[in-house]
Design brief:
Blueprint: H1 13-22, H2 29-42, E1 46-50, H3 53-62, E2 71-74, H4 80-88, E3 92-95, H5 107-113, E4 118-122, H6 133-143, E5 146-150, E6 158-159, E7 162-163, E8 169-173, E9 186-190, H7 193-203, E10 207-209, E11 212-213, H8 224-235, H9 237-255, E12 261-262, E13 270-271, E14 277-281, H10 289-298, H11 315-318, H12 329-337, E15 338-341, H13 349-362
Parallel strand pairs: 2-3, 2-4, 4-5, 5-8
Antiparallel strand pairs: 1-9, 6-7, 6-13, 8-9, 10-11, 12-14, 14-15
Helix pairs in contact: 1-8, 2-8, 3-4, 5-6, 9-13
């Protein structure tokens, strides 16, 4: 089986052993080292490490002091953590439809979703390519909104040369399958000194110094062990990204012209870091997306369906008064058609050839 992802953290062994031998394994100097490196990647003064990507989203919303009834606009085509964070922060979620060329929120639809209660816009930079920030930022500015970037899958991606996480509060996931991983972990990036300070206090039980409590806080801390896993990867981010980009280019060339297969694009002004290589099995394909996935699995090609439904299309959200369900036909179609193929850096040329040959065979090309 050619896996959909491969986790390789062997380069972290020495740093992890160093932390273990130190006896100081909670948040400490290794976390600070990781934060400094991550801030450099995001092009901002501050990176605040936390214990996972969902926490990054929740904490970012918490420091914006949202009140009951305040609304956050986001994408309906995303991992459930995006919606869960909005609800945990006590806000109401609204949705704007997506585009099918980048799988991100459609900036032209955002304006229609804004109400007098809208306080935050949370675009999701899905699969490794940023949303259209050139159109999104004017909406943010016109309506005086806060911007929280769900950059969970987009570490190192850029829009017109600006990195993800540098436009607002950037929220990154470092889960095991991400381009950069600490096994579990997250990061919040910002250029706002005040928000960075509040985030650091919030993650540490509300303490500025030991037993000096300033707010009702939480334990959102990252450990030095987790930070040590991530540091060598950050140092190697350019190589990791270039490998993914090369693999995606090979797949695009090899799969061009297959009927019923819409390939992913890199849109002008953007760089794509290819967390996922996601195709659409369109309605003129000889088989459905689910049949396609089953045949790939049978033939030893790992694949993933991210995500099978719009984020609110589950019983636990459908009747929630804080989830305002919208008409999102593009997101609904994409959820029915999307499938991700392996693009990770460990793929060999032979494996790429096998993926291309098998996809073309299954689709009758």
């Amino acid at each position: 089986m050619i896996p959909i992802t491969v986790v390789d953290v062997a380069a972290a062994e020495q740093l992890v052993v160093q932390v273990l031998r130190s006896g100081a394994i909670a948040q400490g100097p290794m976390v600070k080292r990781f934060e400094d490196a991550f801030a450099g990647v995001a092009g901002v003064p501050h990176a605040v490490a936390v214990n996972n990507g969902t926490t990054a989203l929740v904490a970012s919303l918490q420091v914006l002091d949202l009140q009951p009834g305040d609304e956050v606009i986001t994408s309906p085509f995303t991992f459930v953590a995006t919606l869960n964070a909005i609800l945990e922060a006590g806000a109401t979620a609204r949705f704007a439809d997506i585009r099918d060329d980048d799988f991100n929120i459609d900036a032209d639809k955002v304006e229609d979703a804004v109400t007098p209660n809208t306080k935050v816009l949370m675009p999701v930079h899905l699969y490794g390519q940023m949303a259209d920030m050139g159109k999104i930022m004017p909406v943010v500015q016109e309506h005086g909104l806060a911007l929280v970037e769900d950059s969970a899958q987009a570490v190192g991606a850029t829009y017109e040369g600006r990195p993800s996480g540098s436009f607002g509060l950037g929220c990154f996931s470092l889960y095991a399958t991400k381009n950069i991983t600490t096994a579990e972990g997250g990061v919040i990036t910002t250029s706002d000194d005040t928000l960075a300070d509040r985030l650091r206090v919030l993650r540490n039980q509300g303490m500025r110094a030991r037993y000096q409590y300033e707010v009702a806080g939480h334990n959102y801390r990252m450990t030095d062990i987790h930070a040590a896993i991530g540091i060598p990867q950050l140092e190697n981010l350019e190589t990791i990204t270039k490998a993914r980009q090369a693999n995606a280019e090979t797949l695009n060339k090899g799969l061009a012209g297959v009927k019923g297969l819409q390939l992913p694009q890199v849109l002008p002004g953007r760089t794509h870091v290819w967390h996922q290589y996601t195709v659409l099995i369109t309605d003129d394909a000889p088989i459905s997306r689910d049949e396609f996935a089953a045949k790939l699995t049978e033939k030893g090609i790992g694949n993933g369906i991210y995500y099978p439904k719009t984020v609110f299309d589950y019983d636990c959200y459908r009747d929630n008064p804080k989830v305002v369900i919208s008409d999102v036909p593009v997101a609904e179609r994409v959820a029915r058609q999307a499938l991700s193929l392996p693009v990770h850096p460990k793929l060999t040329d032979a494996e790429l050839d096998t993926i291309i040959t098998t996809v073309r065979e299954v689709l009758g090309a």
